[in-house]
Amino acid sequence: MANPEDQGMETHTSPIEKLRAQCLARGSAGIKGLARVFHIMDDDKSRSLDLAEFVKGLSSAGIMLGSREAQQIFSLCDKNSSGTMDFDEFLEVLRPPMSAARKQIIADAFHKLDKTGAGVVSVEDLHGVYDGRTHPKYQSGEWTEEQVFRAFLDSFDSPSDKDGKVTAEEFLNYYSGVSASIDSDDYFVAMMKRAWKL
């Protein structure tokens, strides 16, 4: 008799589509939250996980997949059959497909924010790029401009580990979730241009 845990919620949905749907159901933070769980579990900083670590990470993130489905996803992402799954390859498979135009406009927005060119956006990068003084909590005196900047960065950061720094990967993961809800490339690009004054 088949293990019900190993059967997908919908028989026509592949395991990666099921995982993607669970992440996207959590909003734009879903994929980046899962990525953050995997980064935390990566004790040796190899940017890869074995199958046991992958299954444990899914469970820690509250992802409901059966063991067979987890194995299928792991095998799909372990391209060289080394017994480990590379983070970047996993995220590339997990992200909803995006056109080159969408990826480019997201990269352009990130580079505009990354004033220091360090590949990580921090509070220091936001000075002169984002005006925190127009935020209602700053205007009411509840927050300093630094607190406004930190809250802004937290919106792109993982809900489980807000470190005040946003990598290009976290930024792409955030906008991957936004992108999934917008059908038109032209609309998405126009929205990003308006939002980031590109």
Automatic annotation (TrEMBL):
Q: Where is the EF-hand domain?
A: 29-64, 65-100, 101-136, 144-181
Query: What Gene Ontology molecular-function terms does this entry list?
Result: calcium ion binding
Could you identify this protein by its name? EF-hand domain-containing protein
Could you state one GO cellular component term attached to this entry? vesicle
Q: Does the keyword Coiled coil apply?
A: no
Please name the SUPFAM superfamilies in this protein's record.
EF-hand
InterPro entries the record matches: Ca-bind, EF-hand-dom_pair, EF_Hand_1_Ca_BS, EF_hand_dom
Q: Which keywords accompany this UniProt record?
A: Calcium, Metal-binding, Repeat
Q: Which Gene3D superfamilies match?
A: EF-hand
